[in-house]
Amino acid sequence: MHKVVGLTLVVLLVSPAFGQVMVAGVAAWVDDEVITIADVEREARNQLASAGREYSPEELEALRPKLNQEVREYLIDRKIRAHAVLSTLTEAQREGLEDFAMEKQNEFARMAGSRAVFRAQLLQMGITLEEHRKLIQESILFDEARRRASPRGKTPVSPAEMRAYYEDYPEE
């Protein structure tokens, strides 16, 4: 059974070593994992980019509350489903998943030109190598959960794909 706490909370953290105040926003908790406001915003940007449409600043501002809510719910669902599949894996399968994620990161680093450049790109997006590796694993587990839940021969369609199709073909 998964415990989900959905909320939006901004936490101020003080770094005694540097005397700095950092803002860390918590959008939700799933079991012992936190979904941050930055996670929600990053996924919302990805979904908007995959829609293949440009939005004016006014349109983006109007979309923001609804999109952030939908994305938060999607990320909660993704974590719950990924955890469910992960709980069915053997230790060897878990190690294989970790190895695959490492291979994918190495592939991304080669495409970026070097591991340092890739790491800098991730930092620009606000994530570490470890967080990126976990996102790869979670994505694989979520896809497997969707595959298991769909009827044979049917490929599940993501909300972003549905929304993009709807916007591209309004007459249908």
Secondary structure topology:
Elements: E1 4-15, E2 20-30, E3 33-36, H1 37-50, H2 57-86, H3 91-112, H4 115-125, H5 129-149, H6 159-168
Antiparallel strand pairs: 1-2, 2-3
Helix pairs in contact: 1-2, 2-5, 3-4, 3-5
Please explain how this structure is put together.
- The chain is globular and about 50 Å long.
- Helix 2 crosses helix 5 and helix 3 crosses helix 5.
- It is built from 6 helices and 3 strands, in the order βββαααααα.
- The protein is α+β, with helices and mostly antiparallel strands.
- It has a 3-stranded antiparallel beta sheet with strand order 1-2-3.
- The chain has one domain.
- Strand 1 and strand 2 form a beta hairpin.
Output the keywords:
172 residues; alpha+beta; 3-stranded antiparallel β-sheet
Summarize the structure.
The chain has 172 residues and is an alpha+beta fold. The chain has helices at 37-50, 57-86, 91-112, 115-125, 129-149, 159-168; strands at 4-15, 20-30, 33-36.
